[in-house]
Design brief:
Length: about 300
Amino acid sequence: MKRQTAADFDQDLLNLYDEYVHGRVDRRGFMDQASRFAAGGVTAAALLQMLSPNYALAQQVAKDDPRIEAAYAEYDSPKGGGKMRGLLVKPAKAVGKAPGVIVVHENRGLNPYVEDVARRLATAGFVAFAPDALFPLGGYPGSDDEGRTLQAKRDPAQMTEDFIAAAEWLAKHEACNGKMGVVGFCFGGGMANTLAVRLPDLILAAVPYYGRQPAAADVPKIKGALLIHYAEQDAKVNEGWPAYEAALKEAKVRYTAHTYPSTDHGFHNDTTPRYDEAAAKLAWERTITFFKETLEAK
């Protein structure tokens, strides 16, 4: 069966789905508006199912891949959720300590796609740690819809503290050499920007994928380098880029930004039709190269 892509759907429907996954339209609202795209026996409910993640597609690195060692680890976040947990993935045959990378999930908790991203980083030689912001509420529930509902119940300021605590914890881990990076997607992209602001002496490299930008007044706090990925069709996020770029230039922050033509928000997530294989592979190659250049430099 042919894998569906964004080209199989009307762009207005993809935009509506983006509104839904970001909580700006509820399920009933999506169904009502999606009904105008239903044709040929395909219902609005079927369209939602087609657009939703299929996590059987997400595994690029198997959980038992011999190149890695993966286990869940707990850490303390006294200013955030208290006791927190994430997936820690290390290279299996590392010689000495390796740089660390925090992996920040989307707005639905630590789902299988983000866990796989952490495993991909470990195969590239990094110690990856992917915290689950939903752990205080029982953890990722196995459903993205339920995960979004749970994450919306968390206090945003406390979640920020949870990821700050995770970065500080990983930097001191016995497998990590203290050189730290962060990569995040959607909500996580915004959090990657935030950690670059909040932990300027720790975060040497930040890679936000289609993430909300920090306030212009906070940009001069950034000391690390940035690699920024945007999707061309992602109007909501992209509207903040001109002001962010101006602030980065004014503050002389090291950054590289790429906008991938004809792509939608979430193009790196290989579990939905919004996935763009060519753009995702190119962005990931750039990400790994960037981390190697910034975190492995002598």
